[in-house]
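Reopening this one. Same input as before:
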Amino acid sequence: MYAIVNIAGKQFKVTKDQQVYAPKLQGEAGASVEFDQVLLAEDNGTVSIGAPIIAGAKVSGKILDHVKGDKIIVFKKKRRKGYKKKNGHRQDFTKILIENISL
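Same output, byte for byte:
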């Protein structure tokens, strides 16, 4: 059984007991969250497709931690002009454990 769910504007294919790194969400570690924007669900070979979402379907999970992603280096240069600019960025993520998928 799996589902495609919209979490904070991004779509994830999730299964039970899977860990997902989603864009940062409000809530503390250990808090439970529910996502009701289920776009597609599969259960024992039966596929349900929403238009645009499946009514009554929910995915519940638990926030495990708030983490930062890998560092991305942004380097700009213009040749023969002496212009160099180096900048870095680390995106904030929320680690979520998917506990249940209900249709």
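So the earlier flakiness isn't reproducible anymore. For the record, The chain has a mean pLDDT of 95.
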